[in-house]
Specification:
It catalyses: UDP-N-acetyl-alpha-D-muramate + NADP(+) = UDP-N-acetyl-3-O-(1-carboxyvinyl)-alpha-D-glucosamine + NADPH + H(+). Keywords: Cell cycle, Cell division, Cell shape, Cell wall biogenesis/degradation, Cytoplasm, FAD, Flavoprotein, NADP, Oxidoreductase, Peptidoglycan synthesis. Pathway: Cell wall biogenesis; peptidoglycan biosynthesis. Its EC number is 1.3.1.98. Its main location: cytoplasm. This protein is of the alpha+beta class and 317 residues long. It has 3 domains: 83 residues, 2-Layer Sandwich (Uridine Diphospho-n-acetylenolpyruvylglucosamine Reductase, domain 2); 126 residues, 2-Layer Sandwich (Uridine Diphospho-n-acetylenolpyruvylglucosamine Reductase, domain 3); 71 residues, Uridine Diphospho-n-acetylenolpyruvylglucosamine Reductase, domain 1 (Alpha-Beta Complex). A 5-stranded antiparallel beta sheet has the order 6-7-13-11-12, with helices on one face. Strands 1-2-5-3 form a 4-stranded mixed beta sheet. A 3-stranded antiparallel beta sheet has the order 15-16-17. Helix 1 packs antiparallel against helix 2. The protein is globular, with a radius of gyration of 20 Å. The chain starts with a helix and ends in a 17-residue tail after the last strand.
């Protein structure tokens, strides 16, 4: 059992909010997940630095969360501190065709900003329901484009609180991967290089891609976005559909009848439901097609632990 008085003191001093035993289902687009020990809405780099120092000194696990759109949280929650970079980390600044976007700025908002300034390059990314920090962390992409196409550099904080600027050449960007998934640095903001374009052409392309998303993807139901990574030489959705798995379900987790590449939450799905369904899909696809599918969402917490609510420790008010 941990005593969170030191964390509470930091949050009081820095005037940021902290919640204890906070359900992660309230902060993920899948609407799944048990409680974390503490959920902090980080409001400044100094707050982040102080909390990282506390976590380092006390050996507290921590995890940075943006929009929670590519997350599958365990039913047992997360026994540690969730550091949420949200609206206080969402400024966008422009210098000609270059944008500096803080990590909590959503791709949709950046896309709208770029459109208003007649800057092209964000059209394929604007419909992804995540923050730009999370998008770079995963090298998110859609419709033939990805973050690697527009990123110049990222401003990051290391676990010891030091800040550095990481150029694209050092990011080791690949399909749904980056160096940030391995080295522990927290993305504070990114510099994007766009190009001057025609407002009308940009809007037409953006509207077209958003229309495709609405028509083909199950946006009306909670999900973590694409559930499986694209296998080399094929598409997960095609293989799953080919195996007749649309509509397959475990509990309230279901392979979308609208788009086979999505597992959706039709009610009160659990992490266990989702993983059991995904295992069934992976095994069926492997047996029938020879393709090995891999999960795309990041799993938070330990899915093997039984569902529970971490006890809220006494905190000095």
């Amino acid at each position: 059992m941990k005593n969170w008085q030191e964390l509470a003191a930091i949050c009081r001093t820095c005037n940021c909010s902290v919640q204890y035993a906070e359900p992660l289902r309230n902060h993920t687009t899948f609407r799944i997940g048990g409680a974390c020990s503490a959920f902090v809405n980080v409001n400044s780099e100094e707050t982040l630095r102080q909390i990282l120092g506390l976590c380092r000194d006390r050996n507290y696990p921590y995890l940075v969360l943006g929009n929670g759109s590519n997350i599958l949280a365990a039913d047992s929650g997360y026994a540690g501190v969730i550091l949420h970079l949200g609206k206080e980390f969402s400024q966008i600044r422009q210098d000609g065709t270059t944008l500096y976007c803080e990590a909590g700025a959503t791709l949709g908002r950046i896309g709208k900003f770029a459109l208003e300034e007649s800057l092209t390059g964000m059209e394929c990314l604007a419909g992804i329901p995540g923050t730009v920090g999370g998008a770079l962390y995963m090298n998110a992409g859609a419709y033939g484009g990805e973050m690697a196409d527009v990123i110049v550099s990222a401003r990051c904080m290391a676990p010891d609180g030091t800040i550095s600027v990481v150029p694209k050449s050092e990011m080791e960007l690949g399909y749904r991967k980056s160096i940030f998934r391995q080295d522990g640095r927290i993305i504070l903001g990114v510099t994007l290089q766009l190009q001057k374009g025609s407002y009308g052409a940009i809007k037409e392309e953006m509207d077209s891609l958003l229309g495709k998303r609405r028509a083909k993807q199950p946006l009306e139901l909670p999900s973590a976005g694409s559930t499986f990574q694209r296998p080399v030489g094929n598409y997960a959705s095609f293989l799953i559909d080919q195996c007749g798995l649309k509509g397959a379900s475990v509990g309230d987790a279901q392979v979308s009848v609208k788009h086979a590449g999505f597992v959706v939450n039709t009610g009160k799905a659990t992490c266990r439901d989702v993983l059991e369904l995904c295992d069934f899909v992976k095994q069926t696809v492997l047996e029938k097609t020879g393709y090995q599918l891999e999960l795309e969402p990041v799993i938070v917490g330990d899915p093997a632990k039984p569902a529970n609510m971490p006890e809220q420790e006494a905190v000095e008010k």
